[in-house]
Amino acid sequence: MSGWTAAIVTVLVALNPLGVARAVAWFDRNDADSRRFVVGTLAAMGAALIGLGLLAAPVLSLLDVSTQTFRLAAAVVIGITGAKMLLAPTGPITEIEDRRDGVLTLATLTLTPAAVFAAMAANSDGGTAAGLVAVAIAVAATLAAVAARPIPEPMLGTLVRFTGAVAILVAVATGLDSARSV
Hints:
Layout: H1 4-15, H2 17-23, H3 32-54, H4 56-63, H5 67-87, H6 99-110, H7 113-126, H8 128-147, H9 153-181
Helix pairs in contact: 1-7, 1-8, 1-9, 2-8, 3-6, 3-7, 3-8, 5-7, 5-9, 7-8
């Protein structure tokens, strides 16, 4: 599993837009100030994810690791994250104390090891353009999921678990493809 489509799907399931939307239950979609705060923070986290993805080449060079070996490691991290999403997804966070708490919450939801590994793998395997497009699409999907009218909780929980199952499938496909190439 490689190429632009694989990069987009991998980063998308690793970032888990529906899981982020589910977790930010404290977000008031009707308050303009709250919307600006969440959109701005998610955009900043997306920029950070792009920056971390751009570090793929220097990190792989420093560690003396091939792209295929890194993709295999990314597949393991994404698979573990997918299993966690499937078996014990993050529930709604109904309260935050202040803006700082909101930034930290959004950072821990978006800058996960799976998302960082996926962004770096997309950059190292598909090239910088593929990595940038994959992260941009995943961040846009996350912004759309968070800003959209809330999905009822039972359905949203099921969709998050489904995303976890897809993440496991993506991890297995990526891992097998990388293992054959190593």
